[in-house]
Specification:
With about 260 residues, this protein is mainly α. The chain is built from 10 helices and 2 strands, in the order H-H-H-H-E-H-H-H-H-E-H-H. Helix content is about 65%, strand content about 5%. The protein is globular, with a radius of gyration of 19 Å.
Length: about 260
């Protein structure tokens, strides 16, 4: 029964994540009928800026802290190991849902594209970005990434084995196609409001911070295999060798980290 309850928990969390992810697309893209990044009544811009910054910061802290190996070791003393990933996905989805619910618009325009062809191109690039995010998750292991495989294997009474290091398709062009997809989705818009710009700047800045910590963990886990991959494949921009970083990043974190 406990394994079945874990499976139900993982499935419910995945469904909540999927709904949140789809709503986020509408939120950023400005889909009519949904709460959007520029929707609602504009109030005091400084108050809106402060609230939005706090909401973005809450997501960044949750995502960064819960993704670290040290937190995972502590957290799995409280929750069963097969539920660790699902609990992370639940917390991240709740943080995104809170951000969307409490977001305050800053509707003044930074830029607005009037040409139909250019506007269509930007909308298409944004759609390509969202598609890239989803495709890239399936290229590695979508269901492991969002906790379903762990709870399913646990329900079957089988030990979950973490996936081996692989670089399929998009991962041969850039090391982080998921992050590249998010950047395209957030920045490619024909109407960039101050609120949208804040959102895009904050999330892009967090992406680079996340890459630093994620790659440090990957070096610890895969060693020279990942170091060689990082030398061969650029970080975010295909065909540009941006993977050359300071040697200090190759240093495994100390036990205290």
């Amino acid at each position: 029964m406990s394994r079945f309850a874990g499976l139900v928990f993982g499935v419910v969390v995945y469904a909540f994540f999927l709904a949140t992810f789809l709503y986020t697309i509408g939120f950023v893209a400005g889909v009519p009928g949904l709460k959007t990044i520029d929707g609602g009544v504009a109030g005091d811009p400084w108050l809106a800026l402060g609230i939005d910054a706090v909401l973005l910061g809450l997501f960044a802290v949750q995502h960064s802290v819960m993704a670290r190996r040290g937190f995972k070791r502590w957290w799995t003393r409280i929750v069963p190991a097969p539920l660790e990933r699902s609990s992370f996905v639940l917390a991240a989805s709740l943080a995104v849902a809170l951000l969307i619910w409490q977001w305050r618009p800053l509707p003044d325009m930074v830029w607005a594209v009037d040409g139909r062809a250019t506007a269509t191109l930007l909308i298409g690039l944004s759609g390509l970005g969202w598609a890239m995010v989803l495709i890239a998750t399936f290229l590695i292991n979508h269901f492991e990434l969002f906790g379903l495989q762990q709870v399913f294997e646990n329900w079957r009474g089988r030990r979950f084995e973490p996936p081996a290091f692989r670089t399929p398709a998009l991962y041969r062009l850039v090391r982080h196609p998921i992050y590249l997809g998010f950047i395209l989705a957030f920045w490619a818009t024909p109407r960039m409001s101050q609120g949208h710009l804040l959102f895009a700047l904050a999330t892009t800045g967090y992406i680079f911070i996340g890459i630093f910590f994620e790659e440090r963990d990957l070096i610890v886990r895969f060693g020279d295999e990942y170091r060689g991959y990082r030398r061969r494949v650029p970080m975010l921009l295909p065909w540009l060798r941006l993977g050359q970083v300071a040697r200090a990043e190759d240093r495994p974190p100390s036990p205290a980290e």
